[in-house]
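Hi P.,

Sorry for the delay on this. The queue was packed all week, but I finally got your sequence through. Input first:
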Amino acid sequence: MKRNKIKSKTKEELPFKEILRELLQERGISQREFSRLIDVASSTVDSWLAGSIPTDLFAIKRAAKLFGVSVSYLFYGINDEVQKPLNIEELFTKEKIIDGYYKVSLERLTIKN
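Then the structure:
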């Protein structure tokens, strides 16, 4: 039985630097300002834009949040669809258990002193 090896992406195949450069230009943010906003050294941002693969995932997460995109989009250009939160009506269906008129009484139990 042959096993398929998963080919890892090299820095030449990752569009990260192009995506980062594009986002910075679209938003009008300088490299220095960007590095300050995500709390990394400006030399780190310079290396990312030169093609270095980021290793600080917390910084990448802060960058994604700053740009309003997913981490997958930053690395691969993949738009992840964000699921909207479900409300209770989408999870359950209502069905009547008992029909008719009833008197319901609720009592709270408290611990005696």
